[in-house]
Amino acid sequence: MAKYKRILLKLSGEVFGGQRKYGIDLEQLQIIAQEIKNVKQLKVDVAIVVGGGNIFRGVAGETKGIDRATGDYMGMLATVINALALQDTLERIGVPSRVQTAIEMKSIAEPFIRRRSIRHMEKGRVVILAAGTGNPYFSTDTAAALRAAELDVGVVLKATKVGGVYDKDPLMYPEAKKFKIISHMGLIRRRLKVMDSTAASLCMENGIPIIVLNLTKAGNIKRAILGKDVGTLVKTNEK
C-alpha cells in the first residue's frame, strides 16, 4: 500500500539526455515513462516538474554572454520540449497525461491552473508541469517546491543519477558520505547542491519531505512511494 497519496516527481533535464546528457534519449524516455506507469498502478496522484538542462541552461548561457533573464526564459522553453516528449511517451504506453505551463502557449499546452491540475490528478491523469515558475532567476527545483505546496502533495521525489544526498560529489569523490536522513536546514547550512536553498526553504516552511533517489535504478520511485528505505530522506528534523 502506498505511503503517499499524491506525489510530485522532479526530473532534471539531464535524465532526458541519458548517457549523452544532452538532447533527448528516446530509450531513456521510455524507461522513465514505464517507471511512472508502475507508480500509477498504485493509484497515486502524480505531478511532474521537468527541467531543461539537457537543451539549454540559463546560468550556463550567462557565462557565454547571454542576458541572464533571456537565458532563463530560453531554459523555460526547453522544459516545455521535454514535457511534450514525456507526455507523448506516456500516452503511447496508456498513461493519460496533461502538460501545463507557467508561460501561456495555448496551442500546445494548458496554462497552469491549480484547481485544474488537482482535477486532472483526481481523474487519474499525470500532470506534467513545465516552464518553471514562469519567472527568471528561479530554478526548476524552486518550481517543484512551489507546485508541491500548491498541489498539497505528500512528498517531493527528486530523481537524480546518484543514490541520495552526500557530503560531497560522489562522482568526484568515491569516499563521499551518504546521508540516510538529513533536515531541510541541514541541507541549507551545508550548502549541499542537490537542491537550491530557496527550494529547500519552501519545502521546510510547508512541512513537505523530500526523497532524493537514483532514477537509473529500476523500481526506486515505486519503492520510495511504498515507504521503503530508498535514497536520502530530507525532513523537518533528523530524528
UniProtKB/TrEMBL annotation:
Q: What InterPro entries has UniProt attached to this entry?
A: AceGlu_kinase-like_sf, Asp/Glu/Uridylate_kinase, Uridylate_kinase, Uridylate_kinase_bac
Enzyme Commission numbers on file: 2.7.4.22
Q: Any idea what this protein is called?
A: Uridylate kinase
Q: Name one GO cellular component term.
A: cytoplasm
Record's catalysed reaction(s): UMP + ATP = UDP + ADP
Q: Where in the cell is it found?
A: Cytoplasm
Q: Please report the stretch or stretches of sequence annotated as the Aspartate/glutamate/uridylate kinase domain.
A: 5-214
Q: What does this protein do?
A: Catalyzes the reversible phosphorylation of UMP to UDP.
BP term (GO), one:
'de novo' CTP biosynthetic process
What pathway is this protein a component of?
Pyrimidine metabolism; CTP biosynthesis via de novo pathway; UDP from UMP (UMPK route): step 1/1
The UniProt subunit note reads as follows: Homohexamer.
HAMAP family tied to this protein: PyrH_B
Pfam families per UniProt: AA_kinase
